[in-house]
């Protein structure tokens, strides 16, 4: 099923590859900002962040669920965590893991944030990274 992206969509991706693709489209839609201007500009709100980690959160449902609709949150959250891991590995060029899942998740987010904070990082850079990671996720065995 193709990913349907619009900022107000109630369709929530539930595979790592689909989350990464949705995030690429989101960041292309809202752009990327760094530092204190994270939520600056038209179309950007507290629930539609315009930075790579925020785009992944939005793709995995942050601020987008619909009342009265049932979602498989365990599956979505597991896919989101896997998407964070594969993106971190794509950005660093090596696995970013730890012994326990909570530490691994924190390290993945840290790696993504460090990459995002590089001066001059553009939405096109993030979208390309998301799509590279999505292609890898398509072939990963989770």
Average of pLDDT: 82
| Overall body shape | globular
Summing up helix and strand content along with how strands pair, one would put the structural category as mainly alpha
Low-confidence stretches: none
In angstroms, what is the radius of gyration? 14 Å
Q: Could you state the order of secondary-structure elements as H and E?
A: HHHHH
Q: In whole angstroms, how far apart are the ends?
A: 20 Å
Helical content (DSSP H or I, runs of 4+): 40-55%
Q: Total helix count?
A: 5
Strand content: under 5%
Largest sheet: none
Number of strands: 0
Task: Walk me through what this model shows.
- The chain is mostly helical and 142 residues long.
- It has helices at residues 16-30, 52-59, 73-92, 101-116, 123-138.
- It starts with 15 loop residues before the first helix and ends with a helix.
- Helix content is 53%, strand content 0%.
- It contains five helices and no strands.
- Helix 1 (16-30) crosses helix 2 (52-59), helix 1 (16-30) packs across helix 3 (73-92) and helix 3 packs across helix 5.
């Amino acid at each position: 099923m193709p990913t349907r992206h619009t900022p107000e969509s109630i369709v929530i991706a539930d595979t790592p590859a689909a989350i990464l693709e949705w995030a690429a489209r989101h960041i292309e839609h809202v752009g990327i900002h760094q530092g204190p201007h994270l939520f600056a500009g038209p179309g950007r709100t507290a629930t539609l962040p315009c930075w790579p980690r925020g785009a992944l959160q939005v793709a995995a449902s942050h601020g987008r669920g619909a009342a009265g609709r049932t979602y498989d949150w365990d599956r979505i959250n597991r896919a989101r965590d896997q998407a964070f891991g594969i993106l971190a590995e794509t950005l660093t060029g090596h696995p970013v893991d730890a012994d326990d899942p909570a530490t691994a998740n924190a390290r993945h987010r840290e790696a993504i944030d460090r990459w995002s904070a590089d001066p001059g990082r553009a939405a096109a850079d993030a979208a390309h990274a998301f799509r590279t990671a999505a292609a890898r996720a398509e072939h990963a065995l989770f």
